[in-house]
Give the backbone structure.
Amino acid sequence: MKIAFLGLGKMGAPMARNLLSAGFEVTVWNRSPKALEGARVAGSAAEACAGCEAALSMVSDDAATESVAIDAAKGLAKGATHISCSTISTALARKLEKMHADHGQEYLSAPVFGRPEAAAAKRLVVVPAGKPGLIERFRGVFEALGRMTVVAGTEPWQANALKVCGNFMIASMLETFGEAVAVMKKSGVGPAVFLEAMNGLFASPVYANYGAIVVDRKFEPAGFQLKLGLKDVRLALAAAEEVGAALPIASLVRDHLISAIAHGQAEMDWASLAMVAERAAGL
Amino acid sequence: MKIAFLGLGKMGAPMARNLLSAGFEVTVWNRSPKALEGARVAGSAAEACAGCEAALSMVSDDAATESVAIDAAKGLAKGATHISCSTISTALARKLEKMHADHGQEYLSAPVFGRPEAAAAKRLVVVPAGKPGLIERFRGVFEALGRMTVVAGTEPWQANALKVCGNFMIASMLETFGEAVAVMKKSGVGPAVFLEAMNGLFASPVYANYGAIVVDRKFEPAGFQLKLGLKDVRLALAAAEEVGAALPIASLVRDHLISAIAHGQAEMDWASLAMVAERAAGL
Amino acid sequence: MKIAFLGLGKMGAPMARNLLSAGFEVTVWNRSPKALEGARVAGSAAEACAGCEAALSMVSDDAATESVAIDAAKGLAKGATHISCSTISTALARKLEKMHADHGQEYLSAPVFGRPEAAAAKRLVVVPAGKPGLIERFRGVFEALGRMTVVAGTEPWQANALKVCGNFMIASMLETFGEAVAVMKKSGVGPAVFLEAMNGLFASPVYANYGAIVVDRKFEPAGFQLKLGLKDVRLALAAAEEVGAALPIASLVRDHLISAIAHGQAEMDWASLAMVAERAAGL
Amino acid sequence: MKIAFLGLGKMGAPMARNLLSAGFEVTVWNRSPKALEGARVAGSAAEACAGCEAALSMVSDDAATESVAIDAAKGLAKGATHISCSTISTALARKLEKMHADHGQEYLSAPVFGRPEAAAAKRLVVVPAGKPGLIERFRGVFEALGRMTVVAGTEPWQANALKVCGNFMIASMLETFGEAVAVMKKSGVGPAVFLEAMNGLFASPVYANYGAIVVDRKFEPAGFQLKLGLKDVRLALAAAEEVGAALPIASLVRDHLISAIAHGQAEMDWASLAMVAERAAGL
């Protein structure tokens, strides 16, 4: 199967590599020209898509995704499929679905959970949504990218709703851990001790990884920038409002992320949210 | 080593059993008379403590703990130690420490993380705090109860602060999961699908267990009653206020637990907190 | 002075009338054709603006304001001024200022506080912002509209920031009153009794008017629709985020307004926010 | 009518003076001996109450009220009435009612709204609750103290519930105003300008007085200490929880008051709550 891969950032590059390893014929394109061993390199997104059965895109946000999709629509043949793996708004997913339909093309959302290391290790959780037949056609693609494929539903935007709710779960954990650590510090209990107990209790790599960042205060360089975390929490709030639901914890986290940015933490890791609780406690 | 074990409830009984298995000589006492194979049964807490190097107590709340401690103080010899494993307030821990000191006795807090199944399987996380020499003396006891011992600090109340912060972490997870599930439902995504993805993401037994309770709506019979969850969140808020810190997420969870109780959920499992988010979303 | 007045809704019509009473020569325009005694009627916003020193606009939201402003820019002469009285985002105010500058025109924001009755009675609080010289030139206009003119600053968007923060103050009062009334009801204290005491305490017509709506449950027909209240709270949150500040109470109110809409209250008066607290309390 | 007045603090002294002016025969008592022109001075609360038809108490908190009530019960004749004007918990009100009933005495709660200046000017809002016949009997007393009497209900604790909900309304206003002022500052709008507009909008002396304290940063000396504000918010939260209702805004205010105290503001005026929003915004 011939596949275009659009976007060779920290996540996209290892994902494209895994497609190559799985035997797909991959043409890549990146905004700033970049090669990938074993892949053909195209000069534009449209050119990359020419002759491909599917184009996967993995870029930073709504604006970049929309711009790439417009180009992809020019290159993809009728009947070909654009699979957006980026974390985007549910509203954009619906817009892209319509745009590709207007070009006689198909569209799937297939966002992923996992950091660059997980992408490299083929350990992502892939969450596709869209027409069941389409998902089946590309199941081999999803399986080449991750360790687990969870089908969110029959409409593409449902996968994006699930993805932003998942990121909200992480954001809430970061806020909660930060609040608890502030209490621990003011109680004279070392954060590392608290983390040890929480690792015993939750036994989750997510808690272990983020907990260590907070305990060791390794907020720079950022694994995931706090300002991008705010973007994701906004996406979750928007997805919830759209269907008529509130996310009170997301509202609270949003407020604290704004405070963090007001204190110069925009480029730090979003685990530095813990500093907001510390400041409130006078630490 | 001769040990008294006070309180043979869902948690206490398997814990006492593990002490017996580890070779301790155990005398047990329970408010409503109860036997335990292999253990001597005493007619009162004071009688159970007579001649013991340590008395462990595992009862439901502050009031029960204080009442048991007063009796234990009558039975314990000078130099003997009361080890409270219950989830109690930091204020009570300080009060008990003083009371036992007035009797020439020692006091340790050693709350535990884990449900009755974990207690039976010797899989608890035990969190002792107090004088380092004392903790060393009873390390064998802690190791007989759980799979992991995390020393919280040199003052007993610090262990209680850690314990209630840990329970707050679980409460926050329940609230967050409930909020997300309400969005998923209104988005037409099945809660089981969301849980599958979250299990992929967090890979935590805590998420898996509580998530399943929410998805399957197995709120009755309760594993842990919602009204006891409110008690624990209150303990966390009190421990935080005491040291001059706020726990905004705990405040929010408290409000929602109160709403749950107003809707008749006091005796349901505290995972039924998810119903508050559902109702707010008009589900 | 020749003035165009664009938008003859519940607020615009009485405002235009007051300009006529004050002796201004007024040309009016409304999207759905509407006459106003004593005023010339134009067939388009652009036509209404021709030959006028200023055009005042008073329409429902950002979209309507932007559309009217584009037309006004076509009709206004170079050097003439567009004065937007609508409740709009700070971002739109900056955009309009730039657009009019590109046409060689001036722009002021001059939002107002007050309901239609206050507009009719010339009792509005007018909050202009922009170049000081411009504000002085149109002081007579502002004074013809209200009982009080408060200059917010030298940049138009500052007036819009102030206006949405003022509306946020009202929204917060509604939420707080609703929460308290739920407690009063569950305590067996009549809401009317509580309102009487609050009127004694605050002695504010805002509390008296909204309090009466809540106590008498006169949520329909709406004086100000709840969905418009949500729009305003969103504008406040956006204005705050833009300058790097959070508005935690606005976040909470937003969540509750979303819940209200999920329960079918979108078209009710926004004082019906009180029903959210009632439902949470199981009333 | 012979009346005992217990507690001659900032509020009690002017209240007792107004009873004298109204022609009541008043015996006073204060913990630290204090005289009041025109009144007989007693050496103990019990002695003050001897031979009186009613004893009014106006002291600082639950502990002081309970202690005074125990003494009053010793001095009051059977059939005499204790009228507690202090801001106390609903739980204590029920306890006092029972204690006095055990002594064959009557009990009313009659908390008041207003600062010392209002007490001196006979401008308080008095909120009695209890047996209707009793309230009628002492209507002249209430009218001698304030400008308005609002009967909360037939059970004393209902007046205390109303009082703490009223204080919660003020606390919420302070928080909201503080949040808005932080946005105004970061928007380059002077707080005094914002206050001017809010005074135009709300026309409330409560907004005017507290707004001026915030704008002028006159947080010391405190008119009402922030730590006492926290006590009152706690009473509101307790009264609400007791009847099965949440007060989400009170929870948020509580968190911010705790943060304020962690930053050394316990003895400042509670309007300094505004500093919490400023700090969060990086001001």
Summary: Chain A has a mean pLDDT of 97. The radius of gyration of chain A is 20 Å. The first strand of chain A starts at residue 2 and ends at 6. The longest helix of chain A spans residues 156-186.
